[in-house]
């Protein structure tokens, strides 16, 4: 039995989908032969994670459009020639074929593209126009949350019986509480972070990641409390990052707001662990991994009452309306209460333990190999 694994749209392991794929590859079962296919420049990232597997380079031209066309036009003959019994698409919300000569199973992490099309009527490209039909052609779909499952049913008319919910995991060997010393500065090369600080780790994006309302809420928090906290926004530029940067520049407390730019994933656990608390104001998340990573680090969390975030955080976080900076600031003030913060950090640690990459991989490969 030979299983093909599509590595396109996984950002070389640097995105959430990339982390998901790498965690699965660390746990490949031994009762089947697995083979990867994707961009040539990603070859060593995935073969390092699973050195016994072959990597087949495909698609000479880079970019999302080239990848989309390859999947639509070239994938069927490729899969047939490689004699795959099953193909697994870990980023099925971004790149999947219209039809497959073998069993096709894909993971959907969110429906952000289709959500944008329906809600804002933006023109978001051909792949997002045809995505519903492509998803309906998959033999099985893995949804990372009940929220994503319901969107697949409501927006795309996928049969409920065709969807299996398998949540992502959190690596508690990487994200865990670290002892705090009395030093006022956290050194994470090449950065230096003055404590106390509030953290939001997400790409700079407007409006979905909702940085602008967080910046406003931070200003309200500072006005009310006069506390020395800084706001650390850790993430590279994305859509409309200039709007986020402009709002930082006009904030009365701009000197207390630190934009890191792209932040190395390997240093993220230490950044989480050094924060007083994490605020997660995103308007839309398919799973909410950042919330659980913060909880696993022993850091109290306030997050938006939106999309999948309440499903991920459950009883272990404080909630706010992401469109209301005043309410967001209220929760930030609440988290400065030491007793409440400690209670939430303990609940968060317990909640994070419910999400295991071992369990995610076991269920995923069981579905692929059945």
Question: Could you characterize what this model shows?
Answer:
Helix content is 40%, strand content 18%. The chain has helices spanning 16-25, 43-49, 64-82, 112-120, 126-136, 146-156, 211-225, 241-249, 268-274, 289-296, 309-313, 325-334, 338-352, 357-369, and strands at 2-6, 33-38, 54-57, 86-89, 103-108, 140-143, 163-165, 185-188, 191-194, 197-201, 230-234, 257-261, 277-280, 301-304, 318-320. It has a seven-stranded parallel beta sheet. Strands 12-11-10-13-14-15 form a six-stranded parallel beta sheet, sandwiched between helices. Strand 1, helix 1 and strand 2 form a beta-alpha-beta unit. Helix 7 (211-225) packs across helix 12 (325-334). The protein is elongated, with a radius of gyration of 21 Å. The protein starts with a strand and ends with a helix.
């Amino acid at each position: 039995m030979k299983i093909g694994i599509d590595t396109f749209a996984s950002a070389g392991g640097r995105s959430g989908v990339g982390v998901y794929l790498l965690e699965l590859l660390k746990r490949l079962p031994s009762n089947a032969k697995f083979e990867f296919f994707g961009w040539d420049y990603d070859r060593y990232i995935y073969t390092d994670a699973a050195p016994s597997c072959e990597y087949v380079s495909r698609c000479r031209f880079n970019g999302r459009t080239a990848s989309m066309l390859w999947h639509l036009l070239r994938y069927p003959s490729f899969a047939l020639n490689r004699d795959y019994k099953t193909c697994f698409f870990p980023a099925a919300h971004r790149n999947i074929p219209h039809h497959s000569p073998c069993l096709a199973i894909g993971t959907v992490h969110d429906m952000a593209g289709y959500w944008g099309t329906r809600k804002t009527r933006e023109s978001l490209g051909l792949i997002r126009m045809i995505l519903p039909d492509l998803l309906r052609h998959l033999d099985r779909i893995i949804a990372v949350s009940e929220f994503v499952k319901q969107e697949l049913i409501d927006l795309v008319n996928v049969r409920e019986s065709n969807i299996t919910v398998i949540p992502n995991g959190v690596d508690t060997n990487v994200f865990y509480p670290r002892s705090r010393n009395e030093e006022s500065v956290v050194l994470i090369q090449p950065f230096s972070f003055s404590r106390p600080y509030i953290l939001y780790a997400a790409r700079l994006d407007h409006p979905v990641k909702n940085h602008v309302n967080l910046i406003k809420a931070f200003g309200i928090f500072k006005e009310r409390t006069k506390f020395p906290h800084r706001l650390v926004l850790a993430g590279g530029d994305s859509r409309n990052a200039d709007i986020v940067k402009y709002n930082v520049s006009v904030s009365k407390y701009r000197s207390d707001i630190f934009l890191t730019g792209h932040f190395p994933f390997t240093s993220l656990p230490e950044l989480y662990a050094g924060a007083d608390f994490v605020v997660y104001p995103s308007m839309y998340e398919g799973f909410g991994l950042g919330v659980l990573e913060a909880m696993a680090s022993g850091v109290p969390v306030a997050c938006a009452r939106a999309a999948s975030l309440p499903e991920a955080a459950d009883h272990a976080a404080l909630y706010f309306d992401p469109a209301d900076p005043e309410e967001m600031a209220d929760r930030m003030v609440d988290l400065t209460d030491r007793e409440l913060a400690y209670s939430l950090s303990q609940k968060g640690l317990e909640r994070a333990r419910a999400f295991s990459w071992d369990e995610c991989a076991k269920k995923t490969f069981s579905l692929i190999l059945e």
